[in-house]
Amino acid sequence: MKSRVFDLAKKIKLLVLDVDGVLTDGGLYYNLNGQVLKRFDVQDGMGIKIAQRVGLKIAVISGLRSEVVKARLDELGVLDYFPGYNHKLPKLKELKEKNVLQWSEIAYLGDDWVDAAPLKQVGLPMAVANAVPEIKKLALWVSSKKGGHGAVREAIMFILTAQNKLDAVWKEWVSLD
């Protein structure tokens, strides 16, 4: 099974992420003004920048709308952000068409029921370690890390390792003056 998943990862050109429970730890933190704050993992952000560096496209589809998420994704240079979609498959189909991809070239990383339809459609369904059991059953790859705690970086590193792109980008970082 492991080599099959590795072979599937070799084909991936687009990684689509959920937000709450994947890019964040799933917690909703409210300040005294009622504004929602979210926690992002810096290493996940670095993973996204590494992915972009080697041409792996990143997109985000979220069930909730959040200016905090938009600000973080803008900071990371993620152009394809679709907030407020509990039914994510139509947006995923739009991304597929826009990027002229086959389903086999798309990976999706999720954690909860709103991610089920996309996971059933893509070539590489992925889940975070703390995903609900139903989502883990749909996933062919499950991170060892929890959402919001490096799971996105781990998924990206897995894909780039399968594609034999990780060593080259690492060498660039090591040789930067």
TrEMBL record:
One of its GO terms (molecular function) is 3-deoxy-manno-octulosonate-8-phosphatase activity. The keyword Membrane does not apply. Keywords: Hydrolase, Lipopolysaccharide biosynthesis, Magnesium, Metal-binding. It comes from the Bacteria. It catalyses: 3-deoxy-alpha-D-manno-2-octulosonate-8-phosphate + H2O = 3-deoxy-alpha-D-manno-oct-2-ulosonate + phosphate. Mg(2+) binds at residues 18, 111. Substrate binds at residue 20. Its cofactor is Mg(2+). The keyword Disulfide bond does not apply. CDD domains: HAD_KDO-like. It is an enzyme of class 3 (hydrolase). Belongs to the KdsC family. Homotetramer. This is 3-deoxy-D-manno-octulosonate 8-phosphate phosphatase KdsC.
